[in-house]
Design goal:
With 278 residues, the protein is α/β, with parallel strands linked by helices. 46% of the residues lie in helices and 21% in strands.
């Protein structure tokens, strides 16, 4: 009887241990399943969601390129591009955070993901579109022919033949003057071209229409005028790394809204005295 009882006791012990083992395995399975479900539920944020979650739109800009991005007399970062970027951030429901970077390093900063977007008068071209995405364009720059206010001889680009045109030799604008037969007088940039023009040492300059508008806004009495322009201008837009489709769309939508509700025009007229979106 003792032997039989001992046998029964051993059998019951085996059953009990097996049952405990089965319960342990079942619990582990449940925990593993719960972990997997949790992983599936927590999906990765897209680019727009990430910006909204952070509460900031990180913006790359130069801060030394007036009137687009520069510091005013008080030292505050301001400018046309800066105000456009600030308004975009406001419409996304986040705060703008500016990262001032020299032009030579601004794309490297984007590549390193130091910022989410560049607002710095970056023109759209095919080379850049290979690596980056662009928003809806927010400004158009056209090449214009500028002469002194009392000049009646030059009315079109064709009239530059045999005339002295002040041009920066590193700019493609000098090609327009040269192709129309102008005698090129080398300048260091827009400001020197204006000095030569107003002093009568050159007859004309082919230059950036936005720079002209800025000058006339700052000095409305300057004795110069635009007599012709190249109809196909260069468009500039916000720049993004590829793969940020949601953020690109949101920024583009904000720019379109600004143009339609009059906000864009107010900013444009503040800096240029004109609508520079077209």
């Amino acid at each position: 009887m003792k032997k039989l009882s001992l046998t029964i006791l051993l059998a019951l012990t085996v059953v009990f241990v097996a049952a405990c083992g089965n319960n342990s395995n079942t619990d582990t399975s449940k925990n593993s399943s719960a972990g997997t479900n949790g992983g599936n539920t927590a999906t990765a944020q897209n680019s727009l969601e990430a910006v909204k979650a952070s509460g900031k739109l990180r913006i790359g800009t130069e801060g030394t390129y007036a009137p687009f991005t520069y510091h005013d007399a008080s030292g505050k970062l301001t400018g046309f591009d800066v105000e456009i970027a600030e308004e975009v951030a406001k419409r996304l429901g986040v705060e703008p955070e500016f990262f001032e970077t020299q032009w030579d390093g601004i794309f490297a900063g984007m590549d390193a993901k130091r910022f989410d977007v560049i607002f710095n008068e970056v023109s759209i071209n095919e080379d850049r579109k290979v690596k980056y995405d662009f928003s809806e364009p927010y400004i158009v720059s056209k090449a214009v022919l500028i002469v002194s206010e009392n000049n009646e001889d030059i009315k079109t680009f064709a009239d530059l033949k045999g005339k002295k045109a002040g041009q920066s030799l590193t700019s493609n604008l000098s090609d327009i003057a040269r192709e129309n037969g102008a005698e090129i007088v080398a300048t260091d940039g827009f400001n020197q071209a204006m000095d030569l023009l107003t002093s009568g040492r050159i007859d004309a300059t082919v230059n950036d229409g936005l720079s002209y508008l800025d000058l006339k806004k700052q000095k409305p009495d300057v004795k110069i005028k635009v007599v012709d322009e190249i109809p196909d201008g260069s468009q500039s837009a916000a720049v993004f790394l590829k793969g940020n489709d949601e953020l690109v769309k949101a920024v583009s939508d904000a720019i379109v809204e600004m143009k339609s509700d009059g906000t864009y025009l107010k900013i444009s007229e503040k800096y240029f005295g004109a609508d520079v979106s077209k």
